[in-house]
Design goal:
The complex is a heterodimer of chains A (436) and B (372). By secondary structure, chain A is an alpha/beta fold. Chain A folds into three domains: 88 residues; 210 residues, P-loop containing nucleotide triphosphate hydrolases (Rossmann fold), CATH 3.40.50.300; 108 residues, no CATH class. Chain A contains 17 helices and 13 strands. In chain A, helix 6 packs across helix 7. Chain A is globular. Chain B has a domain of 223 residues: Cell Cycle, Spindle Assembly Checkpoint Protein, Chain A (2-Layer Sandwich), CATH 3.30.900. In chain B, strands 1, 2, 3, 4, 5, 6, 7 and 8 form an eight-stranded mixed β-sheet that branches. In chain B, strand 2 and strand 3 form a beta hairpin. The longest helix of chain B has 25 residues. The N terminus of chain B is likely disordered. Classes of the chains: A alpha/beta (436), B alpha+beta (372). Chain A: It comes from Chanos chanos (Milkfish). Chain A: Keywords: ATP-binding, Differentiation, Meiosis, Nucleotide-binding, Nucleus, Oogenesis, Spermatogenesis. Chain A: GO terms for molecular function: ATP binding; ATP hydrolysis activity; identical protein binding. Chain A: It holds the Pfam family AAA.
Chain lengths: 436, 372
């Protein structure tokens, strides 16, 4: 049932593909995990055929209603996308023929706790979350990328941990546990890091009893005292080391905007940066080398300006993933999820069926009564190309604020408002460029 | 210094009155017990202070030498204590105790005297034995981070709840998360409220008023603490609670400090056959202060305190959040206060407990410390 076990099975010429089932147990439930597992198995036996990802939130059984928030079959779309694209509609997933990996978890409601470096320092040097955290729930689903970026990242880290489990000699085959995500602002790099950590802590719950997510405030590593900065870095990593020492924990270290830490060396050579800053970079690099030896740590970094990052650092990253602005398909999906949410909250009323891009494609984009709104949405999506993910997510809000102004609105009017909001955004963007 | 003295003594007098009133209001014990238990309780609070801060037990001597400031901080209260007591005419032996305390003399002498009075009062074991016992307690506390309190009979479930609550209050105060003891804070808080209510017409008032305390923070901390205590009471009424953890600072998996109250070896019995709570509390705190488990000369930063309790899976408690995956942190030094009953009593009851059914619960509120 656990992931390591499943990986072990794969060389046995067992063609069964893993299907991951995430079971979110209510936070006030005291039921034994084995019991929950039993009931979920029974549920999946009753509904053994699903079309793509599916989520149960209501159950016909008292036990599940009482203890379980949701049962979700997740991350099968990529597989569908690659292997079964043409037969997707005709070939649903039969759970009985698959390896079921059931991951049972509860969310931690406590907010972040802070790591302080100096006794009298009010400012915290890092925030740490206990995973799976309630704050990060749902981020993974909300992120839309093309080309299976999410799955690649997931597979990368899974392999990393698999290699460590198998005691692969890291001198012969080197892997660093460092991921660098770069790209323009607002494309969800930081969110992706959080979501990835959350996802992995759920996936690995059989191997590690909990996850820790440490977000370093990189500016806090620079001391006001000359020559103290390097020591601060060391102190910070000592704290992280304490977390790593617990072999039950899977630790994710996020260094956001990593260029602020590592851009310094070149500048220092040019004489525009004090030599203390070089020490920080050197210290970070050596400390990273130190902690990456441990099998239960993953270092996630993000950056907007890749050219500025220290080469020595870029070299250390195993995966340098570019996260670009979303494509039309991605934009369409984002809008779709936004509209679904608004319809759920009854701000857009009455509820109307919207098709996914895939369904539209199979229908050949034929205009009809049922597909009319979906096609309008696709036009809006096409128009919004070039806007960042962050803007896209707030667009429905802007549309409502600027052009709707009534408590409930029909889908037609709302789409019209969104269209105008997109125009306004593009105009603003153009103005901004002109000013510069 | 003199100002503090003044305040302290006034406060303590009032405390006496308040305590009496409180007990008549809240205590669910039988009428006949009330007068007895209230004096006993008071004695305990006073004795706590005496033994915690100025009894010349070996541990605190060490402390005194290392940190003279600590003694200074304490002394006004202690002096005022003697004033109140002699004024109120509460107890002559107690006053004697205080004389010993205030008199700078040979520490060994003092120890013997103190121990003599206390033991003859409560347990009646010979003085010699008590001294060696105390030395053992101190050694254990210092080397193993463990204090054993063995009660000579059965205790009630209510009693366990009281023990835990009092230890929590004590830990918060001793670890410098509260500027005064809980009872003092409550008293000052009420007094403050009364004074602000009378001249409400003034309108906006600065938050820092008399005594230099930030009343809003004080109120918030007290509220949080009261809430936690309330939740603990509910949990104890619903389930047997063999262990309680106080997690200070950091996160639940990697705290700065960790205290455990272990009650696995307690023999519970309701009703007549059990020991009086006040007697147990006195013994508990005496041992605790002799062992000197909670004092640390270094100044402590303000932290948040989380309470975790082991309870039965199906007890149906509402406020607490079950943490099925929680494991007691092993990376931090854990200070254990272990409560037990005489081994002859305890053994018979241990067998029928299935530990699999006991899971950790986390209190829904954390207590944020405050200083001034």
């Amino acid at each position: 049932m656990d992931i390591v076990g499943d990986l072990k099975k794969s060389p046995n010429k067992n063609p069964a593909v893993n299907v991951h089932v995430e079971v979110l147990v209510k936070s006030n439930s005291t039921a034994k995990r084995t019991e929950v597992r039993m009931y979920v198995h029974a549920l999946l036996n009753r509904h053994s055929v699903v079309l793509g990802p599916y989520k149960w939130t209501e159950f016909d059984e008292d036990f599940l209603t009482k203890h379980v928030e949701s049962v979700a079959i997740v991350d099968v779309e990529h597989e569908v996308h690659y292997f079964l694209l043409l037969q997707y509609l005709s070939q649903p997933i039969d759970l009985k023929s698959r390896n079921l990996c059931i991951h049972i978890f509860t969310l931690n409601n406590d907010g972040p706790s802070t790591l302080n470096l100096e006794e009298d320092e009010e400012l915290s040097a890092a925030n740490s979350w206990l995973l799976p955290a309630a704050e990060f729930h749902g981020i993974w689903e909300s992120l839309v990328y093309d080309g299976g970026i999410k799955t690649q990242l997931l597979d990368y880290v899974t392999t990393t941990i698999f290699f460590s489990d198998k005691n692969v000699d890291s001198n012969l085959i080197a892997w660093n546990r460092v991921v660098l995500l770069h790209g323009p602002p607002g494309t969800g790099k930081t969110s992706l890091c959080k979501a990835l950590a959350q996802k992995l802590s759920i996936r690995m719950s059989n191997r590690y009893s909990y996850g820790q997510f440490v977000e370093i405030n990189s500016h806090s590593l620079f001391s006001k005292w000359f020559s103290e900065s390097g020591k601060l870095v060391t102190k910070m990593f000592q704290k992280i080391q304490q977390l790593i020492d617990d072999k039950e924990a899977l630790v994710f270290v996020l260094i956001d905007e990593v260029e602020s830490l590592t851009a310094a060396r070149n500048a220092a050579c040019a004489g525009t940066e004090p030599s203390d800053a070089i020490r920080v970079v050197n210290s970070v690099l050596t400390q990273l080398d130190q902690i990456k030896r441990h099998s239960n740590v993953v270092i996630l970094t993000t950056s907007n300006v890749t050219e500025k990052i220290d080469l020595a650092f870029v070299d250390r990253a195993d995966i340098k993933q570019y996260i670009g602005p979303p494509s039309v398909d991605g934009i369409f999906n984002i809008y779709l999820s936004c509209l679904e949410e608004l319809m759920k909250c009854q701000i857009v009323y009455p509820r109307q069926q919207l098709f996914t891009m895939f369904e539209l494609e199979t229908m050949g984009y034929v205009e009809s009564d049922v597909s009319f709104f979906s096609l309008v949405l696709r036009d809006i999506a096409e128009k919004s190309k070039g806007l960042s993910g962050r803007v896209l997510r707030k667009l429905p809000f802007l549309a409502h604020a600027l052009f709707v102004k009534t408590p409930t609105v029909t889908l037609e009017k709302f789409l019209n408002a969104m269209d105008r909001a997109v125009d306004k955004q593009l105009e603003e963007k153009a103005n901004l460029v002109n000013c510069v | 210094m003199e100002e503090g003295e003044e305040k302290g003594s006034v406060f303590l007098k009032d405390m006496t009155i308040r305590n009496n009133a409180d007990i008549t209001d809240n205590r669910n014990e039988t009428q006949s017990m009330e007068s007895l238990s209230c004096t006993a309780d008071e004695e305990i609070t006073i004795e706590n202070k005496v033994s915690s801060e100025c009894t010349p037990c070996p541990g605190s001597h060490l402390l005194d030498e290392q940190n003279p400031e600590n003694v200074c901080r304490v002394s006004p209260r202690e002096i005022s204590l003697s004033k109140t007591e002699s004024g109120g005419g509460l107890d002559i032996t107690r006053e004697d105790d205080l004389k010993f305390v205030l008199k700078p003399s040979n520490p060994v002498d003092d120890k013997e005297n103190i121990n003599g009075t206390v033991t003859s009062e409560s347990t009646g074991i010979s003085t010699r034995k008590a001294v060696t016992d105390d030395e053992e307690t101190v050694r254990r506390a210092r080397e193993e981070g463990r204090v054993d309190v063995i009660f000579p009979g059965y205790v009630t479930q209510d009693g366990c709840c009281r023990f835990v609550c009092e230890i929590l209050k004590c830990v918060l105060y001793q670890r410098q998360q509260l500027p005064m003891t809980y009872d003092q804070l409550v008293y000052f808080q009420r007094q403050h409220q009364a004074s602000t209510q009378t001249d409400d017409a003034v309108g906006w008032r600065p938050t820092k008023v008399t005594g230099g305390l930030d009343w809003r923070r004080c109120q918030r901390t007290l509220q949080e603490l009261d809430e936690v205590l309330g939740h603990l009471e509910t949990l104890f009424s619903l389930s047997h609670v063999p262990r309680v953890l106080f997690v200070l600072g950091g996160s639940v998996v990697l705290p700065n400090e960790l205290y455990e109250v272990n009650m696995e070896a307690l023999a519970l019995e309701a009703g007549e056959g059990s020991l009086r709570v006040s007697v147990c509390l006195r013994q508990l705190f005496r041992t605790l202060f002799v062992a000197d488990l909670l004092s640390d000369a270094r100044p402590v930063r303000l932290m948040t305190t989380t309470v975790m309790a082991l309870g039965h899976r199906d007890c149906g408690v509402d406020g607490f959040r079950p943490k099925l995956d929680f494991r007691v942190p092993t990376k931090v030094k854990r200070q254990v206060i272990s409560l037990a009953c005489d081994s002859s009593l305890a053994k018979a009851r241990q067998a029928d407990v299935n530990w699999e059914d006991y899971i950790w619960f986390q209190a829904p509120v954390t207590i944020k410390g405050f200083c001034k």
